[in-house]
Every structure is written in structure tokens, then in C-alpha cells.
UniProtKB/TrEMBL annotation:
InterPro entries: ACT-like_dom_sf (IPR045865), Ser/Thr_Dehydratase (IPR050147), TD_ACT-like (IPR001721), TD_ACT-like_sf (IPR038110), Thr_deHydtase_biosynth (IPR005787), TrpB-like_PALP (IPR001926), TrpB-like_PALP_sf (IPR036052). Belongs to the serine/threonine dehydratase family. Its EC number is 4.3.1.19. The gene is ilvA. It holds the Pfam family PALP. Catalyzes the anaerobic formation of alpha-ketobutyrate and ammonia from threonine in a two-step reaction. The first step involved a dehydration of threonine and a production of enamine intermediates (aminocrotonate), which tautomerizes to its imine form (iminobutyrate). Both intermediates are unstable and short-lived. The second step is the nonenzymatic hydrolysis of the enamine/imine intermediates to form 2-ketobutyrate and free ammonia. In the low water environment of the cell, the second step is accelerated by RidA. PROSITE patterns: ACT_LIKE. Residues 336-408, 431-502 form the ACT-like domain. GO terms for biological process: isoleucine biosynthetic process; L-serine catabolic process; L-threonine catabolic process. Keywords: Amino-acid biosynthesis, Branched-chain amino acid biosynthesis, Isoleucine biosynthesis, Lyase, Pyridoxal phosphate, Repeat. GO terms for molecular function: L-serine ammonia-lyase activity; threonine deaminase activity. It catalyses: L-threonine = 2-oxobutanoate + NH4(+). It comes from the Bacteria. This is L-threonine dehydratase.
Amino acid sequence: MHHQDTRMLEAYVKKILQARVYEAAIETPLSAAPMLSKRFDNQIWIKREDLQPVFSFKVRGAYNKMATLTDEQKAQGVIAASAGNHAQGLALSAKKMGVRAIIVMPCITPDIKVQAVRALGAEVILAGDAFSEALAHARTLIEKHGYTYIPPYDDPDVIAGQGTVGMEILRQHPDDIDAIFVPVGGGGLAAGIAAYVKYLRPEIKVIAVEPADAACLKAALDAGERVVLEQVGIFAEGVAVAQIGEKPFEILKDYIDGVITVTADEMCAAVKDIFEDTRAVSETSGAVALAGLKKYVQQTGAQGQSLVCINSGANTNFDRLQHIAERTELGEQREAILAVTIPERPGSFKQFCNVIGDRMVTEFNYRYAQGDKAHIFVGVRTQPGGQDRQALIDQLRSADYPVEDLTSNELAKLHIRHLGGGRAPSALPEEAYRFEFPERPGALMRFLSFLPEGWNISMFHYRNHGAAYGRVFVGLQLPPDDLPQLEHQLDSIGYRYWKETDNPAYRLFTSQ
């Protein structure tokens, strides 16, 4: 470590030691996770930030930042743009200090978060679809009314507030720790923990964990500078950030020991793991760190180590749990989703069931195809790890059944498994598209109003996941010459979409 670097860390450690967080936050327990520990052959601990008064660590940074304000700044009122936990942390901090708080939230913010912020006495303004639009609106209000902006992560006092999590971990676990796994969105929590831990116990690894489709720290480290992601996956909205914070990156670029990225299914599996060991329901971003820890153990073969992960929050819509539970089986590779073609004749279905044997079937969709064939969409319980799934596929193929493995096929998991019905007889070819749009009242109707008239909608599936984004699967019948015009029209809607006409799940079950 250079002298220069030590000075920066030392400055942060002093800030962390003097941070005023406990007037609003509590020191949260470091819970042992006996079932996970046994399963992964390491001592695993979960830092329970989901037990904060606002169910997330964000209250620490918000309160510490507000504690540095002058009386004049407090009198002006504070403002933040946030879709989630920062909003609640700031609202609680402002309430404790008797300061007026205005929170600008994107219109897609789940109702539970809007209500929670209002319940804490803050004023909520809904503006824009995305966080960036909400932030722009907040800036306009600052210019107009002179409010003080409280950033969610890109600020030394906020970083120091979050760093108290690291301070507590070292105090609560004075024995050896091999690695601490931290979720990363804007990087405030990871930077605070890294600064404190690397100054005092540099031998402890601090490992960042991000969703694979929102890995802004990984992208910045790979590029050697902060970059803006073009697309950000919003499955774990608490860490859905397009660019790592400037101040956090100054610390993270030198002191982080690695970045692990995880998928949506892996996060869902981690939500279940946390529940099984602690009976707490974390939000998807709250389980990101544990998902990374599990991957680390699998990748490095670590045994007998002390590993700590942070459950950063528990602000999730109740109706989202259904979707999380459904994806969990896939995240743990405990379920195979297969498309199997069987001959259409008496007794063939029973024969197929004999081949599957005594495995548990989790889902079954049967669809008559042309002439002498039928397609079966089947979910089968398998042993984790993937080998068992392959064995099942080999078993079916050796019995002469054509099999298509759809276990990692997004379209199959989101839509096809919920679709019934047959095929539309038509002279016109069908094109299939999958869409994602901000979920809010009227969003589905708005989407439908954009779809071109004169083209037949031959298939439609929409399911509300209780998430911030709605997902739709559409089949359109149109003359081949109209294709370029169709895609032009779809681009103009401005929603993310994927063409799925060639997807095997669609081809087997829904295409004509």
C-alpha cells in the first residue's frame, strides 16, 4: 500500500469511526447460517441489514450525511431521487431531525415503497419512467427551491455511514475472516466496507457481487475507468445502477479483491437460502451477496473458511415472492424444463411417463401438433449441479424421444410455460416478440395502443410478476414484406424487446 493510499483509507476510517448513524440505525446482528455452512463446508455468516428500522442499510449513509448539514441547509429541506431504500433511509433520518424531506421517485416504483416513504412523513413526487428522469426532476426542484441534495452513494459522508457495517462486522467477529461479500449498485456500501476492512485487516478479501446484467463495477474495472452501461437489468432494482459512483470507484479500483456476477435465478435461490437459515425474506438485491458467496465456493473449492455476506435489505413486494419461488428451483438447477416430442397414439403418453420413472414432475403442458406428433412441455425435479439433468435427457433420447432442453431459455420460463391453446391456421406467417416495459397502471393498454392495426395478433401472454417491469409475449401475423415496417414501429415504442421467432421453445409449442 502506498503512503498516499493509506492516507485516503485513514481519512475514511476516521470518518467511519466518527459517523453518526446510531441515532437512526441499529447495530445489526451477524447471524450464523448453519444450514448453508454445512452444505458448503465453510463457516458462513449473514450480516443482517434487513433488520434496520427501514429494512435496509441505506439509513446509515443518509443519516450520517444529514448530520453534517448546517442549520441553514436543514431549514431549506432535503431532497433525493430514489426508487427504493435510499428514499426510506432519508425519510427516517429527516423525521428524526425534524427536517422536511422531498423524495422524487420514478412512476414505476412499487407501491410498497411509495407508501413506506409517505408513512415516514416525507413528501413523494412521482416523475419519469426511469431513475435518470426522476433525478433530472429533482435537480430542477433544487434549482427552484434550494433544497439540499442527499446522494444515495456518491459522497464521502454517505460512504462513511455505510462503512459502519464493516466496522460492526470486525467487532462482531474478532476471529479470522477469509472474505466478505458485498452487493454493489452504486458502490457506496462496498467502498465503505473496503476502506475500513483493508485499513485494519488487509488480509481479509472484500469481494463485490453484481447482477450479470447490471455489472457496472466490473465494466469499470475492465475498462480502467467508469463507464455507463447501455442496458441495465432491473430484476434486482436495489443494485440496478448504470455507472459506478465516482467516489466509491476511487476506493474500489484499488481495494476490491474481485467481482462476481450472478444471474436472476441464482439470486432467487439465495433468497430461499437466507429464508431457510434465518426465516427472513430478503429482497433480490439483498440476496445478491450470498449468491456471489455460493459461486465463489463453487469456483475456488474453498473449504473450512469463514465467509461473511451482507443481506442488504428486505423491501420486496409480497406478490413478487411467487415469481422468486418459481425461479428458485431453476436457480438451484433442481428443475429441468424440457420439450419432448412423442408419437400421437394411444398409450404413448403412459410410455413416456414410464421413461421418466419415479422422478417428480413439476409441470406438464401437452400440446397436439401436426398429424402424428404431440409436444410435451415438462418440468422435472432434478438433483442440483446439472449432471442429473443431462442424465435425464440422455435417458429420453435413448428411448428415441426428440428432446430440447429449455432450462436456461428465458422465453420458456417467463411465458411458454403459462400458455395453453393450439395453433392459428392462417395463410400468413407469424412473428414472435418478447417485450419488457415499465409496470404501472395503463402501461399494458399503452403498449396495446402502439401495436399496428391491420396485423392480426395471433398470440398474447402477459403476466404481472409484482415487479417493476411488465413482460409480454406477442405473436403477430403479417405479410413478409411488412416485416421491416413492423420492427420500425416496435423501435418507436421505446420498450426493450427481443425477436423470438427462432426460439426453440416458441417453435415447438406455439408457432404454426
